[in-house]
């Protein structure tokens, strides 16, 4: 266990090795779990650091089903975090960020800002086209990541994995 560096954060001690139960949702009209490189990459990176996959699903890019699924997972006390991949751009079908931000009780604008800042060194100005976001829904931490495998790898390694345990502890109160 390590002591949180901020005495005012309210999380108390956070077990640096605590396994979280994470739901991974891929938004795609064409992918199946077998050929979903980005969703599978998220699973691989989570499991590499000891987290558990509570559920792994692929669904179409539709706001209603995503909203219903996220709310169902948030209602499940055993789920610590939800990570979506896909639907974070500006194309007409890209609605993940809109749905997630509608559901957020507390947003983390710094998450998207930091992701885009890190991404600039990899893909240049195209990083501005991502609306990746994160925050808390109820007592569950939620992340909406882009759909490309490169962007998922960047987001997971630089933005999600370094904070997910601490963010989950804060979300739980």
3D architecture notes:
- The structure is a single chain.
- The protein is of the alpha/beta class and 173 residues long.
- It has one domain: 3-Layer(aba) Sandwich (Molybdenum Cofactor Biosythetic Enzyme, Chain A).
- Helices cover 40% and strands 21% of the residues.
- It has 6 helices and 8 strands.
- It has helices at 37-48, 63-75, 96-103, 109-123, 149-160, 164-172, and strands spanning 2-3, 13-14, 21-27, 52-59, 81-85, 106-107, 133-137, 140-145.
- The strands form 2 sheets. It has a 6-stranded mixed β-sheet, sandwiched between helices. Strands 1-2 form a two-stranded antiparallel sheet.
Set down the secondary structure blueprint.
Blueprint: E1 2-3, E2 13-14, E3 21-27, H1 37-48, E4 52-59, H2 63-75, E5 81-85, H3 96-103, E6 106-107, H4 109-123, E7 133-137, E8 140-145, H5 149-160, H6 164-172
Parallel strand pairs: 3-4, 3-5, 5-8
Antiparallel strand pairs: 1-2, 6-7, 7-8
Helix pairs in contact: 1-5, 2-3, 4-5
Instruction: Write the CATH fold name.
Output: Molybdenum Cofactor Biosythetic Enzyme, Chain A
Report the major sheet: 6 strands, mixed
Within the largest sheet, what's the order of strands? 4-3-5-8-7-6
What count of helical segments does DSSP give?
6
Query: What is the name of the CATH superfamily?
Result: MoaB/Mog-like domain
Assembly classification: single chain
From the alpha carbons, calculate the radius of gyration and give it in angstroms. Answer: 15 Å
Give the number of DSSP strands: 8
For this structure, what is the CATH class? Alpha Beta
Q: How would you describe the shape?
A: globular
**CATH architecture tag:** 3-Layer(aba) Sandwich
- The secondary-structure element order is EEEHEHEHEHEEHH
Separation, N- and C-terminal Cα atoms: 17 Å
Total discrete domains: 1
- Unreliable stretches: none
